[in-house]
């Protein structure tokens, strides 16, 4: 039932019905509900098309490595609820993304309060982002975090991967707003001399992306911005 249906039902309530005493949920039932919510993620498949409800459930159930399994329920639109059995499984799935279905990114929200999806924005997605062309002297965790904050909300910094392959890069895990264009590079005066260093960004597992407006969630052919000449560069995995 969507919000419009609920509004119609509420408006149809008689004065007499509204004056009846309201029920109070048993504390034990409330505790069970809070426990269920604490192990839940709510995700929205970022596509303009309405997805088949069973397809994401079957795909994600098969590829996710949850030790105690995960129960997936379809909600309204392209929104799904993911119920885990323990916090470790939920954390591993969150940190293992970004996740996609049929090339469309899935934006996750941690439910709070009563878990009303009408109050969820689904406007942030976490990516591992590689920052390239970084001088060796500045390949530290603190500087990686500083650079990552220029992109989004930083949750992790990985220096080991770059060191193992001998590259001049760091990886940062950041939550990025889907309402804003993705940044392609960072320009930073690293040593305060006025000399600008340009560092290229490479987003891992980035699939459904528009090269015209630099936003995620749809492809170039679905972009609503006026058409213009674009040089398409394959800078994502």
UniProtKB/TrEMBL annotation:
Entry-linked InterPro entries: At4g02000-like, DUF4283
Top-rank taxon: Eukaryota
Domain DUF4283, residue spans: 36-108
Coiled coil: none
Protein name in UniProt: DUF4283 domain-containing protein
Organism, scientific name: Dipteronia sinensis
Source lineage: Eukaryota, Viridiplantae, Streptophyta, Embryophyta, Tracheophyta
